[in-house]
Specification:
This protein has about 400 residues and is an alpha+beta fold. The chain has helices at about 5-15, 20-25, 30-45, 50-60, 65-85, 90-105, 105-125, 125-135, 145-160, 165-180, 185-195, 215-225, 250-260, 270-275, 285-300, 335-340, 350-355, 360-370, and strands at about 200-205, 210-215, 225-230, 235-240, 240-245, 265, 305-310, 310-315, 325, 375-380, 385-390. The strands form 3 sheets. It has a 6-stranded mixed β-sheet with strand order 2-1-9-3-4-5, sandwiched between helices. A 3-stranded antiparallel β-sheet has the order 6-8-7. Strand 1 and strand 2 form a beta hairpin. The model has no long low-confidence stretch (mean pLDDT about 85).
């Protein structure tokens, strides 16, 4: 088949991060290859709705006999969906397209499909699955732009694991590959992503010691012998032992208050007021407090004792270790939601529900609350409605992102 010089030139322009240069060559053409390239160019320019329409038109124009070209269109559509935070797109279609490309020797686009799936898994908090899939991808034979994408995903997984040294090395490799690719947008993406290592990620409260911590400092605290009550992920841990209270909000509230006051005790009425959200404690509340404290004492057995005092309760870590409270860098009721919105992309409520593991109705109530407070804004109507928020200025949101907690 004879090579079309305009199509080839447009493809090279896109690979170099020059969407306007690509459009100059194919803007007036409606053949399948031109439609696909126009769609990718529009995606790079940020017009994701138009890009999706063009890529789908290209897939139809290629027809069933051009399996490789159609598979590439499926990958392009998946990338557009990922950029627009439409996380409910068909993962099987992407897997099938990846298999088709691999079978026909197109290893570069097949690898690109793999990275799209890994990025989706990271976004929805399935870090174990993302890591397993990442291990199957070898970046060595790939062009610089894809090697940079690989390292960005490696860094993202490392950050969610709180492995800051590994993340820093991955960002360095991504930076080198991006400069080798000579794509300004990719270089800027790497720099913006790596900036999270320089931002406060949590507040440490340990008796009179109160200060902001960077991610690597948080990692150090979690690896220490201290009993850590982690308000970012709602767990209590000491070294390798982790007790998750993500589904026990009242118990975590009590643990938070005890850690905040340590080594002093917390009066019963104060515990009741914050845990049960009531101003006037009665005998039924005090009885309930005893029950909840008994449950918390059972869950934390081996890590700490909860001692009754004359006025209330006090936390007593085993083996004389200190108690450290890791509070959120900013006090916010819907921190996980804002952490997702802080990436600067537009999210649908269904995608947020998938990432948070919550019902869409619950997510919609949270969004309405944030919108009323001026912390989120929407555009579009019906199924096309999307939500955005400015980044949480000056703070890292890594610890606030939804991630299943591994229990030991």
């Amino acid at each position: 088949m004879k090579t079309d010089p305009l199509i080839q030139a447009a493809a090279q322009a896109l690979a170099a991060g020059d969407p306007l240069g690509a459009l100059k060559r194919v803007a007036l053409r409606d053949d399948a290859h031109a439609l696909a390239l126009r769609g990718i160019a529009m995606a790079q320019l940020g017009d994701l709705v138009r890009a999706k329409t063009l890529v789908r038109s290209a897939a139809r124009a290629f027809g069933a006999k051009q399996a490789v070209a159609r598979a590439r269109c499926v990958i392009a559509e998946a990338e557009i969906a990922l950029a627009s935070r439409d996380l409910a797109w068909r993962a099987k279609a992407l897997a099938d397209a990846r298999a088709t490309l691999a079978a026909h020797g197109d290893r570069i686009n097949a690898a690109h499909a793999g990275y799209l799936e890994v990025r989706r898994l990271v976004l929805i908090g399935q870090i174990d699955a993302a890591e397993r899939m990442l291990d199957t991808l070898d970046p060595a034979p790939l062009p610089p732009a894809l090697r940079a994408a690989h390292e960005l995903v490696v860094a993202g997984v490392a950050l969610r694991r709180l492995q800051t040294a590994a993340a820093r090395l991955a960002f360095a490799r991504a930076r080198h590959a991006a400069h080798e690719a000579r794509i300004p947008a990719l270089i800027a993406e790497v720099e913006n992503a790596s900036h999270v290592l320089q931002l406060p990620a949590a507040r440490l409260i340990a008796g009179a010691d109160k200060r902001l911590l960077l991610l690597d400092e948080v990692e150090g605290v979690l690896a220490s012998d201290a009993l850590v009550v982690d308000a970012c992920r709602h767990v209590v841990q000491s070294a390798a032992t982790v007790v998750s209270l993500t589904r026990r909000p009242i118990l975590f509230n009590l643990a938070y208050q005890l850690a905040e006051a340590w080594p002093a005790d917390v009066p019963r009425d104060a515990l009741i007021a914050r845990a049960f959200k009531t101003r006037h404690a009665d005998d039924s509340h005090r009885a309930r407090l005893r029950v909840e404290m008994g449950r918390l004492r059972t869950l934390l057995a081996g890590l700490a004792d909860i001692n009754a005092t004359r006025h209330g309760f006090a936390l007593a870590p085993r083996r004389g270790h200190a108690v450290v409270l890791l509070a959120r860098p900013v006090d916010e009721a819907h921190a996980a939601m804002l952490a997702l919105l802080a990436d600067g992309e537009s999210w649908s409520s269904s995608a947020l529900a998938l990432a948070l593991g919550a019902s869409q109705r619950t997510v919609q109530r949270m969004l309405d609350s944030l919108a009323a407070a001026g912390k989120a804004q929407s555009f579009g109507q019906g199924r096309a409605r999307r939500w955005m928020a400015p980044p949480a200025s000056g703070f890292a949101t890594t610890l606030l992102l939804p991630t299943p907690v591994a229990l030991n």
